[in-house]
Design goal:
The complex is a heterodimer of chains A (422) and B (286). Helix content of chain A is 42%, strand content 17%. In chain A, the strands form three sheets. In chain A, strands 7-6-8-9-10-13-14 form a seven-stranded mixed beta sheet, with helices on both faces. The termini of chain A are far apart. Chain B is mainly α. Helices cover 74% and strands 3% of the residues of chain B. Chain B is built from eleven helices and two strands; from the N terminus they run ααααββααααααα. The chains are: A alpha/beta (422), B mainly alpha (286). At the A-B interface, α3, β7, α8, α9 and α10 of A face α1, α9 and α10 of B.
Chain lengths: 422, 286
């Protein structure tokens, strides 16, 4: 009788153990991908997802050994018995509240061991509050609000550059242009959507304008889902800026481009972020997008100096039939950083993974951006090597124009205006 | 500066007429049936996509696809009323509220499924470019859409006042029981009004598609603004909705121009709140 109950206890204990660690037992590591897969910016979310899916395929060894990316050569995670990576997606619908609840659901119900994604900074902010509370690592490579890494969270890491870096790039670019053309630029107008992302860009743009000595003649925030932006553009025309700096998502980028043209607003330069580089933008506005300058960490022409970029973007094109965009390219890197950390930690235990993430040192040759590599700041967990660049729409393509040293083509400056476009 | 002011007034009118056209369909349904059509924004989206696909597949200019949008949305409205809304009308109040909401979510997600969440623009067609009068830029597609909105609203107005069916709709709107006693088939009037309401927003969608981008969630804010216009103009009042639409358009652009553009929607909704406070039945409501 006694022996029998002992056996029962042992059996149930072992069963319990099996169920509590199903992740490794099956040789599959589940991570959660939180993205806006429906709603206003679903097209962006799907684009990010493409990048992540390709990355996971590469990590799991689907594309062979000739890619110089973490885990590509081994196929799976060698230190974890060749375990494969699997992404469980959750839809945020672009809402911060869903970002938090979906992240919680992924962790508590789907038992994912790490989180990636969110794209929108406002959503990443709430999602990372959930991971911090539930003590699960979060590697973000697609949200750019500086405040995300100013919180010094223990479990949150960011691979990509943030908007303070990008905003500074805008002004550094203006200085360089002045030097190049010998013509003075005096005034800027700052235009931004009014959530986490845009308002932070606005804040840093004001700060750097003062630092670099430019006068801000208009400072306009607006709702990204606006139905009409003629009053915003009216204000811009009234303030007569030399240069416009615009932080937008995609719907507002399209609407503003059309309204600029319609009302004839043509400053010397239009410097932009995010929305203007999404794959939906150029097909929607066509020639009206020409000569607009966008911040970027990625452009296909990087392949000229970095063959890895061409290899990856060819795989992307083969898999999806479209060119790899900035968004897909940014989201692409997070799974590699996590896989590398899991592998070195030899475990998916949160504390061990965080420790491994802090020791991350991925060389520049293994990233698809023009960086020195990936290494996290021990305090803020921001990648210290992350940096930006600027691309310009020329002949319906995004080409790298700044920094001038790594430019693929000369920048078109000043902005030629709207006349004569179809 | 005066030129910019004039420009803003013109812009306000142009967007205002568009709002009016979207709102009159909603106010008609509301007036006749006392139900809120939360799927109104999605009907607009369907109208825009219809116009987009007719252009993409058959090269039909959006201007000529207006009758098709009208007819298609009319049939869709009748269908939705017959097979979904009329069933729920007998149920509790909450069910009536939720049903159109559900239809809206279904339609926008169906659009994501069928047509992907990408953004589309109809390339410049017959209507393109801007007229320039000195400093004043007048967008041609927007101007034509505004004229279209005025004509459509006028047609609806005449239809309601002059035709027998129109008078029956108005009678049902004023007093359902009395209309029933007078031998009006109110069930038929209901489905007809739902159809006409949907058809009007279909026309609005076709006009809007000549200059606005198209994607599955495009109806969201337009729908919300249409609700406040209907409430501002007076529930069920066609003239009220027409005037309120223009007011909202003007408030939005001028408010945004003189104050901070960040507050333009706040100004619109503040005017709405103040009006409702002073005149709860709306501008022309009874």
């Amino acid at each position: 009788m006694k022996a029998k109950s002992w056996i029962t206890i042992c059996l149930s204990m072992s069963l319990l153990l099996m169920f509590s660690a199903p992740v490794l037992a099956q040789g599959v590591i589940k991570i959660g991908g939180v993205y806006p897969l429906s709603g206003n910016i679903a097209s962006t979310g799907l684009d990010c997802k493409r990048g992540v899916d390709l990355a996971v395929d590469i990590i799991n060894g689907k594309y062979g050994k000739d890619l110089d990316l973490p885990m590509a050569k081994t196929g799976g995670l060698p230190n974890l018995g060749g375990a494969k990576l699997e992404v469980v997606y959750a839809d945020t619908k672009g809402e911060p509240k869903n970002g938090m609840s979906e992240t919680e659901r992924l962790i508590t119900q789907e038992k994912v061991v790490a989180i990636i994604g969110a794209y929108q900074s406002s959503v990443t902010k709430t999602a990372s509050q959930a991971t911090e509370r539930l003590k699960v690592p979060y590697v973000c490579s697609d949200s750019s609000s500086p405040t995300l890494t100013e919180r010094n969270f223990k479990y949150f890491f960011r691979v990509s550059p943030h908007d303070a870096i990008f905003a500074r790039d805008w002004f550094q670019f203006l200085k360089d242009v002045e030097k190049k053309t010998g013509k003075k630029i005096a005034t800027v107008a700052i235009l931004y959507e009014n959530t986490e992302f845009g308002s932070n860009v606005g804040k840093y743009a004001r700060k750097y304008a003062e630092e670099f000595g430019y006068k801000v003649v208009a400072d306009i925030s607006y709702a990204a889902n606006a139905t009409d932006v003629t009053s915003e553009v009216g204000n811009l025309i009234k303030s007569k800026p030399d240069v416009l700096m615009h932080a937008s998502y995609i719907t507002d980028a399209i609407l503003f481009t059309k309204t600029f043209k319609e009302m004839g607003f043509a400053p010397k330069g239009i410097l932009t972020m995010a929305g203007y580089i999404e794959p939906g933008y150029l097909p929607a506005v066509k020639a009206d997008g020409s000569n607009i300058i966008v911040r970027s960490t990625f452009a296909l022409d990087l392949g000229k100096k970095k063959p890895l970029v061409t290899k990856v973007s060819q795989l992307f094109k083969k898999k999806y039939g479209i060119d790899m965009s900035e968004n897909a390219a940014r989201s692409f890197m997070a799974p590699f950083v996590l896989a590398d950390a899991f592998n070195r930690a030899k475990s998916t235990n949160s504390e061990a993974v965080v420790k491994a993430l802090l020791e991350t040192n991925i060389p520049g040759s293994q990233v698809i951006y023009p960086w020195k590599g990936i290494k996290f700041d021990p305090q803020s967990h921001q990648n210290i090597y992350a940096q930006g660049g600027l691309v310009q729409v020329q002949n319906q393509q995004y080409v790298t124009v700044w920094p001038f040293a790594s430019a693929a083509k000369d920048v078109v400056w000043p902005f030629p205006g709207w006349k004569g476009r179809k | 500066m005066p030129e910019q002011l004039l420009q803003q007034i013109v812009n306000g009118l142009l967007i205002g007429f568009m709002y009016s056209l979207i709102a009159i369909g909603l106010t008609l349904i509301w007036g006749v049936m006392n139900i809120v059509n939360f799927a109104h924004g999605e009907f607009l989206m369907i109208g825009m996509f219809t116009s987009f696909w007719l252009f993409t597949m058959y090269g039909l200019d959006p201007l000529f696809s207006i009758p098709i949008c009208f007819l298609l949305l009319f049939l869709m409205g009748m269908f939705i009323y017959r097979f979904i809304v009329s069933k729920v009308m007998k149920g509790p109040m909450l069910a009536q509220l939720v049903v159109t909401f559900g239809i809206g979510i279904f339609l926008s997600n169906l659009a994501v499924y069928l047509w992907t969440p990408d953004f589309r623009l109809i390339p410049p067609t017959i209507l393109q470019g801007t007229w320039e009068f000195g400093e004043l830029n007048l967008s041609i597609p927007k101007t034509v859409a505004s004229i279209g909105s005025i004509i459509t609203s006028l047609c609806l107005f005449l239809f309601l006042r002059k035709s027998k069916t129109g008078k029956a709709i108005l009678a049902t709107e004023m007093d359902r029981e009395a209309a029933l006693l007078m031998g009006i088939n109110t069930e038929r009037i209901n489905s007809l009004s739902f159809g006409i309401g949907a058809a009007l927003v279909g026309v609005a969608g076709a006009f809007l598609s000549t200059y606005y981008y198209i994607y599955p969630q495009v109806g969201g804010l337009f729908g919300l603004i249409a609700f406040s216009i209907v409430a501002l103009g007076g529930f069920g009042s066609i003239e009220g909705a027409f005037i309120a639409g223009i007011l909202v358009g003007l408030a939005q652009t001028l408010g945004g121009f003189f104050f901070d553009p960040a507050y333009k929607y706040a100004i619109v909704f503040m005017i709405y709140l103040i009006t409702i406070w002073i005149r709860p039945q709306g501008l022309l409501g009874w």
